[in-house]
Fold:
Amino acid sequence: MHPVNFYFYRHLSTNLTRRLCPLAQSHASILRKLKDLRPLRQIHAQIITSGFTRDTFRSNSLINLYVYCGLLGDAKQIFNHIPCKNVVSWTILISGLVKNDCFIEAIEVFREMMVVDFKPNAVTISSVIPAFANLGLIRIGKSVHCFWVRGGFEGNVFVETALVDMYSKFGCVDVARQLFDGMSERNVVSWNAIVSGYSDNGFSEEAIQHFNLMQRKGLAVDFFTVMSLIPASLSVGCLQVGTGIHGFVVRTGYENDKHVKTALMDIYVSHNCVDDAHRVFSEMPVKDVAAWTLMLAGFSSGRHWDRAIKHFNEMLGMHNLKMDSIALTSILSSCSNSGALQQGRRVHALAIKTYFENNIFVGSAVIDMYANCGNLEDAKRFFHGMGEKDVVCWNAMIAGNGVNGYGTDAIDLFLQMKGSGLDPDESTFVSVLHACSHAGIVYEGLQIFYRMLKSSHVIPNLQHYACVIDILGRAGQLDAACSFINNMPFQPDFDVYNTLLGACRIHRNIKLGHEISQKIFEMEPNDAGCYVLLSNMYALAGNWEGVKMARASLRSKRLKKDPGFSSIEINQEIYTFMAGGKDHPQYFKIEGMLKFLIMKIQKAGYVPNTDILLQDVADDMKKDILYHHSEKMAIAFGLMRTKPRTVIRITKNLRTCDDCHSASKFISKVFRRVLLIKDANRFHVFQDGVCSCRDYW
Structure:
């Protein structure tokens, strides 16, 4: 879009009085070339002073240009002063309003046009139809469609394409397909409309099929085709399709468009291919906040929390990048999952500084961050200070109390929420039932579930039933848990049986545990975690034959359990330790601290529990493996790098094992430190040799 030669126009205007007729012709040619506001204002002024304001053609051109510049007020003012409007006048204004997302105003202008008996043409109809589509006005959209058909107009590719798009946006894909099939002429826009219609409505395979058909017909693909195709590949859920589309994008030359690159990043992020997403991100010469935020969300959802925090710090260093609520929510989620309290406080301060503190989504993320970093008091303080709270905020606070072991407080909040007039949703009930299971609150938990059954707006799903089984199982009521499963309205799934197997391990019910494990193996024969759980259960009961069988099954299937890792935040930096890992730069110092730590707690009475290990190795090797579990290494590093009496905060991806739980008690007592460890299930606060979970985890 090249601006008009302003100096040519200025020279032309100085000779206005002497060359009025040539100027009349020049107005038309210059108006066709104008794209910038300043010369537009000046030529508009010349038209006024020349007495051409009543000229319909010039007025229509001015309306079109003001609309292009987004100055709708000026466009409407010119429109209102045209004494003899024609169909072009009405159509230009309607089209401009739609292109600027003023859909209601566009429909109102269209209604006025019909009232004063101006018959719309094909351009008018194709211009106004997107307004009905974007507002979801099905009845009015159908009425205009009927008007077009009853008028006996001939088939028009622009109108029919707009109708295909409209019905697709209404969710009437079959009607859209019927219109598309009946078109006598189709262009690229028509094909894009049906491809995007299928894609947006979840019919991904049909979208890809029509794209392939489009290619076979030799039609040139454009930017909109590509942008319609990428969401379809996401819905298919197949990475191979996504990489195929990436290759197609490269071949067609659209790979350098920032919107296309952001969409390609979304493909890789959705499949947890974070490195591939980052490669696409790095290739972008200009990155907007959407690309930065998507990459941040990818690091967060992929559990690359240290990379998420580093990426966020890079974002803060970008002077022209304006932070939004999605970016803040994503980084708060990373801080929450990694236990990075110091970074979380920093992000909270940034939310206040950028006026996002009162945003509901950011607010619920702040609550979740403080609660999941073990700082429940700050979570409560923020929650009670919020002016407006939605269900998500209440859910975050209820879940926060639950994960920190305050089941009674979670129930109180649940009742307060109901008293405030807000209806609990599915997540609310999951949060409060989880809180009851981890706190050993059986009666109240069952009461809440049965009240839920009577509620008309929330229907319990398998997740809620699994929570009740966990409540009964942890309390040792295994028979009641089995009876509950047998009377469920659903077929039990993996999570239901896995929950009961965990309860069998806690209460050493070998017989039931063996029965449940067989059902689990039928569903998930290659789940290593169940074999580990079964082996640990046999070991606790002294059934060494069972331990051998479980180990043999693991070896024969070549299965490995998920590696354990623990994270600790020191001076706003996340340090992650893998079980048995030796690649840390300060490994030898950590190793020395570990030996000193083990020696001290052994003198205090700690005995390593080698029974929990599956490896068939010598006892000395088993002890060495236990000593190098990830949370012990993180604790040793924390003791090295923090001041005395400082709380050591650690986040672990798996359930903490019995040996580490026992060792942490001794460490808290011997070194006089509070250890705050968040595992996959809950928080454990170790202080003076006692854990807040009361060995109920």
Notes: The chain is about 65% helix and 5% strand. Residues 587-603 form the longest helix (17 residues). The radius of gyration is 33 Å.
